């Protein structure tokens, strides 16, 4: 199933497919947020924003607005509650 | 002479780079600034095997050589510029064992610059626990470089690392990745235009400033003007380069790096769950702040009393020991009084820096950023503004520099503008002494009134910062995109050594930095206070003697004599001496006290008619509505150089011509308002002073930093005028209501 990082549930994982916007901050890429890499949603901040993810072993927080631009394919086996 | 080589430490933030630096250099280090910019420069000396000495530079942390901030560009420039005297002979790329992949991105970039590089894998002691295994020989072969496994926490591997550095000549300079494949045509053209230059170096020069706003640094090379491509095209190429590097790295790590995913990661997850919880997260944050304030007030009281007492007796000792004269007076009344006014605050400042560095070292600070981002945004701030606002409680200068991590220019500018409202350590001296004088004893919910007042002042500072941020957010019309990325590093037990060095270093620079200004101002003030031009000043002795013989002592002097005499009498009554002896002693005492009172009256008359007295009287109409006399007025005025000057100034003013051993606090308590005849420092004037210092922009250094960081005089001028006017009005209202 295709979705964006912003719509992941806690503990859910996915593989990054593409960026819907062309120019994400270079820092995000350097931290390992690249197509083909795995993303796990670790935590969402109390007011639903920012979002705390583990991508490629890097634990980073990004704002929802950026998370919405990262399209991914959910890894189905991890969807069970 | 032994040979000296340059070694640069470079690496991602949170990899323990500073720990490696501390391990290598020990106390042989100094912290300064890069010339012309406010980026902190840490350097030190390390003795290596075979008589080689290494000059080590700790470069600002960076994820790659694609710079996004001034700090990062310092690192890149040093690596690019072969003529820089600090240009490294060897680069140590510090990596932590868990994030090796990401750290290798930076490593391959440095290799491609053909700088001999050693990969230092830190936190090796965690490998087993994290289920990580690395095939070091194979990785060395694939990267064409030497690797040192170290653990700064356990102190392992440092000697082997020193061996490797000493052997720097045998390190390979072969690049890892061929960047030109991302756009062969473009790089071909580049090569033809600059045939002598290294192609990767040129690429870095060209892309240096595509990512960071708004202060763009000029590069010496003409290459920076070589742009057949737009900024977004260049950015896209940078993305391509990053992907290319990761392909190379992934290929290597597949063969050399194994991690057992099931190995413990529970600790981090559990702590994250609690510390970023929607209730407990904020509660814990609040409790931590509360603890810090109570500690600053409670724990440091004893050392402070000792220091205060020490300076009082040192002053007396100087006066008794040195031959009387102008020089002795200068030392005792100018220099010692001024220095005492700053040294006394060392305990508190050390505590403050201790807590801040603990929060940073443990990794807790980034959780606070995560928790606060959404809350700060309506005010035009970012979660990252929390770090400057908290470290602003130590000093606004590093706090303003810490805003560099904020990606969005509008959020960053607002943070810079409001940070000086937070209660910095320079305000602390003023707050503490005024609180001690005017706030009554008592407890509320286990906290003393005094500690509570202090906390309220801190909260007031934050509120002022937040409210003005909100206003600025409405007023400022700046369009900028919101990029927010922050790493949440693993939790770590703080290294005692790192925390100790930070506290030592910061306290030292606070004391010496402020000390210089205070010393200068104290000497000037002492001169202005003990010299005068008018007849009133020169004939003070005869004028006062005449007045006393005609009208008797002033009310203040009379109470002074009476109180001291009572005390003396009471002490004698218990001694069991004969009544006539007691009577004699009391008479001798009375004449001594009268002599002292006379001297004091002469001294204060002289002061009033000295240069400083005239200056003070000139500004008195401005400060009178706030409840201050001309002496406080002088202190407030000198505080515009730096706030912490306040106490030193008053100490100098009060000690000029004063014979007695007295602490600053007692002298202030004894001051009487000439109009009301009541203590000068009462609740109304005290609160008015506290509020004035809470809001006024009284710090030249901060203004200079803001000028530098915003690249214009517009913003610091705005701060100075707006904050100080605001402070005046609030202090005025407070005094008029409370008096």
From TrEMBL, chain A:
Superkingdom of the source species: Bacteria
Record carries keyword Aminoacyl-tRNA synthetase: no
UniProt keyword Metal-binding, yes or no: no
UniProt keyword annotations, A-Z: Iron
Domain annotation Ferrous iron transporter FeoA-like: ranges: 3-74
SMART domains with a match to the protein in the record: FeoA (SM00899)
Pfam families associated with the record: FeoA
Residue ranges that the Swiss-Prot or TrEMBL entry lists as coiled coil: none
InterPro entries assigned to the protein according to its UniProt record, in alphabetical order: Fe-transptr_FeoA-like, FeoA, FeoA_core_dom, Transcriptional_repressor_C
Molecular function terms from GO: transition metal ion binding
PANTHER family (UniProt xref): FE(2+) TRANSPORT PROTEIN A (PTHR42954)
Protein name: FeoA family protein
Biological source species: Maribacter flavus
From TrEMBL, chain B:
Entry GO CC: plasma membrane
Protein residues bound to Mg(2+) 2: 25-26
One Gene Ontology molecular-function label: metal ion binding
Membrane topology type: Multi-pass membrane protein
InterPro entries (alphabetical): Fe2_transport_prot-B, Fe2_transport_prot_B_C, FeoB_GTPase, G_FEOB_dom, Gate_dom, GTP-bd, P-loop_NTPase
Binding site for Mg(2+) 1: 22
Residue span(s) of domain FeoB-type G: 4-171
Xref: PROSITE patterns: G_FEOB
Keyword hit for Nucleotide-binding: yes
CDD domains assigned: FeoB
The protein's role, per its UniProt record: Probable transporter of a GTP-driven Fe(2+) uptake system.
PANTHER family xref list: FE(2+) TRANSPORTER FEOB, FERROUS IRON TRANSPORT PROTEIN B
Protein name per its UniProtKB record: Ferrous iron transport protein B
Protein species of origin: Maribacter flavus
Gene encoding the protein: feoB
């Amino acid at each position: 199933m295709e979705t964006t990082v912003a719509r992941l549930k806690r503990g859910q994982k996915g593989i990054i497919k593409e960026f819907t916007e062309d120019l994400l901050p270079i820092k995000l890429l350097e931290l390992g947020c690249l197509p083909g890499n795995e993303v796990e949603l670790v935590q969402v901040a109390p007011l639903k924003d920012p979002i705390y993810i583990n991508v490629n072993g890097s634990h980073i927080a990004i704002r929802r607005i950026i998370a919405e631009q990262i399209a991914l394919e959910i890894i189905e086996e991890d969807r069970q509650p | 002479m032994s040979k000296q080589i340059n070694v640069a430490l470079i690496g991602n933030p949170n990899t323990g780079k500073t720990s490696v630096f501390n391990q290598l250099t020990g106390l042989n280090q100094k912290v300064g600034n890069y010339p012309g910019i406010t980026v902190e420069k840490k350097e030190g000396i390390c003795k290596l095997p075979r008589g080689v000495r290494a000059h080590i530079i700790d470069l600002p942390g960076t994820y790659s050589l694609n710079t996004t901030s001034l700090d990062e560009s310092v690192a890149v420039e040093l690596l690019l510029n072969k003529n820089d005297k600090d240009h490294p002979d060897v680069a140590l790329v510090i990596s932590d064992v868990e994030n090796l992949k990401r750290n290798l991105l930076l490593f391959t970039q440095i290799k491609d610059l053909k700088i001999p590089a050693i990969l230092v894998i830190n936190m090796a002691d965690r490998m087993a626990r994290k289920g990580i295994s690395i095939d070091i020989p194979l990785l060395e072969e694939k990267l064409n470089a030497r690797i040192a496994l170290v653990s700064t926490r356990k102190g392992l591997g440092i000697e082997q690392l020193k061996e490797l550095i000493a052997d720097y000549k045998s390190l390979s300079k072969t690049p890892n990745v061929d960047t030109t494949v991302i756009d062969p045509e473009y790089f071909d053209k580049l090569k033809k235009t600059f045939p002598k230059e290294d192609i990767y170096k040129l690429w870095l020069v060209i892309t240096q400033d595509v990512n960071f706003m708004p202060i763009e640094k000029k590069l010496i090379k003409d290459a920076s003007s070589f742009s057949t491509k737009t900024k977004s095209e260049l950015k896209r190429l940078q993305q391509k380069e990053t992907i290319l590097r990761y392909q190379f790295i992934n290929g290597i790590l597949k063969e050399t790096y194994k991690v057992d995913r099931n190995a413990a990661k529970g600790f981090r997850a559990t702590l994250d769950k609690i510390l970023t919880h929607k209730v407990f997260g904020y509660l814990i944050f609040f409790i931590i702040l509360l603890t810090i304030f109570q500690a600053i007030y409670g724990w440091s009281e004893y050392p402070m009393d000792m220091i205060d007492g020490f300076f009082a007796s040192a002053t007396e000792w100087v006066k008794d020991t040195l031959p009387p004269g102008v020089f002795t007076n200068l030392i005792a009344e100018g220099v010692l009084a001024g220095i005492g006014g700053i040294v006394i605050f060392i305990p508190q400042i050390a505590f403050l820096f201790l807590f801040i560095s603990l929060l940073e070292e443990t990794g807790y600070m980034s959780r606070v950023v995560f928790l606060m981002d959404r809350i700060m945004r309506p005010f035009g701030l970012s979660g990252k503004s929390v770090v400057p606002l908290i470290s602003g409680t130590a000093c606004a200068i590093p706090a303003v520099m810490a805003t560099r991590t904020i990606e969005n220019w509008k959020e960053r500018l607002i943070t810079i503008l409001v940070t000086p409202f937070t209660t910095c350590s320079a305000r602390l001296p003023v707050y503490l002494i005024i609180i001690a004088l005017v706030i009554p004893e008592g407890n509320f919910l286990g906290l003393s009134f005094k500690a509570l007042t202090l906390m309220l002042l801190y909260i007031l500072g934050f509120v002022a910062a937040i409210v003005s941020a909100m206003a600025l957010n409405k007023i400022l019309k700046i369009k900028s995109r919101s990029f927010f990325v922050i790493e949440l590093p693993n939790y770590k037990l703080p290294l005692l050594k790192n925390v100790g060095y930070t506290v030592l270093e910061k306290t030292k620079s606070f004391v010496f930095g402020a000390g210089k200004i205070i010393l200068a101002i104290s000497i000037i003030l002492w001169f202005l206070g003990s010299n005068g031009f008018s007849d009133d000043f020169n004939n003070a002795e005869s004028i006062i003697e005449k007045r006393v013989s005609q009208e008797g002592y002033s009310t203040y002097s009379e109470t002074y004599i009476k109180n001291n005499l009572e005390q003396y009498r009471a002490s004698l009554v218990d001694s069991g001496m004969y009544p006539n002896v007691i009577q004699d002693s009391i008479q001798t005492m009375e004449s001594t006290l009268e002599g002292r009172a006379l001297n004091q009256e002469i001294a204060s008359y002289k002061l009033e008619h000295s240069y400083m007295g005239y200056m003070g009287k000139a500004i008195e109409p401005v400060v009178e509505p706030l409840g201050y006399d001309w002496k406080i007025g002088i202190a407030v005025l000198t505080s515009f150089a730096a706030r912490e000057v306040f106490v030193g100034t008053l100490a100098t003013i009060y000690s000029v011509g004063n014979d007695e051993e007295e602490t600053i606090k007692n002298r202030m308590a004894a001051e009487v308002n000439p109009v009301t005849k009541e203590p000068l420092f009462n609740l109304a004037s005290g609160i008015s002073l506290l509020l004035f210092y809470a809001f006024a922009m009284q710090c030249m250094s901060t203004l200079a930093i803001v000028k530098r960081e915003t690249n214009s005089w517009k913003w610091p001028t705005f701060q100075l005028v707006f904050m100080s006017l605001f402070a005046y009005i609030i202090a005025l209202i407070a005094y008029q209501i409370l008096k």
